[in-house]
Request: fold
Amino acid sequence: MKFRTFIEQDEDGIFVATCPTLPGCISQGNTRQEALLNLKDAIEGYLYSLQKHNEPIPLPISEELLEIVI
Reply:
């Protein structure tokens, strides 16, 4: 499964990674790579919890390409 993620660097230089498809699924790290690895663990735990509680798992992303003509 693939989920869209966002990474931003906060004012203290820490990288914050979020997964908007999974509300509240947020992690951080001192580097972009560390933040992504931590978020991967958070996503796996989030999905495990949903499965354990028989809750629906959100659909992974599907990318669509749009051609824009100007």
